[in-house]
Specification:
58% of the residues lie in helices and 18% in strands. It has 151 residues and is of the alpha+beta class. The structure holds zinc ion (ZN).
Length: 151
Amino acid sequence: MERGIANILHRDTIAVIVGSQTFERGEKVFAQKRVASVEATRGELRGRVIAAERDRKPYVVRLWMREEGLAYECTCPVGLTRQFCKHTVAIALAHLENERQEAERGLAVLREAMFTVKPEALIERLLVLARRAPEWADELKRVCLDALSTQ
Ligand SMILES: [Zn+2]
């Protein structure tokens, strides 16, 4: 999967870019499950959002990266004025949620797989990580101290 756009898309970043009012409206659209689809390809998100009005077609939304930052388009009245609309926020939030769930599923598989590894092999690998990153070393020390204090 293309990670480009996911790397810069964070809730906080979006909130700052669009302002709190548009962000809250987008959160509401997302919470109402009006995002019919969202897909990430080559640094761009494309999605469809069900309109609140029954007689309107779904809005077609696109969000992509440019050198100057995020670019976006939406077929809603606000989007047509080239402003960041709530639908754009909603598909970004839907994408972030998809990524989060995918990561969780990946970790669940990893958890199962780790039970098949010998503890000694895991320890050696964890030490490699601890050598590379001090925060891993600190965390492992904390785990050991916790284990010692409960013995
Ligand atoms: Zn829109």
